[in-house]
Amino acid sequence: MNSRGLLASFYYAFSGIFYGFLTERNLKIHLLAAILTISMGWYLKISSIEWALVFFAIFLVIVAEFINTAIELTIDMITKNYHPLAKQAKNLAAGAVLLSAINAVIIGIIVFVPYIKMFIRSVYG
User: Is 65 a residue of the active site?
Assistant: First the structure.
């Protein structure tokens, strides 16, 4: 691939990212949750390994949401009519987002609960 093709690939990828965050409500919600989570991690001074887990969870949810959105847009482009397979494809993609979000919550509990307990003990003795 030549450099022009590579630059175009990055341009299209970033265009997709910006489109997603500007137009998709759920991506905005995930972005807000990510910002709050990163802020909490910074405030609580979580470890490098914990940062890796947190960022992995954040990116997994966002990637799943992008894939879900792409599947929904593709199906909507192909047909406006109800079809049981289209419904199942959309449900499966939404299920992937839900599973990744549950994973993120579990990682958040594992990482943040010990810090929150220490914080509460230090404040309330």
Answer: yes
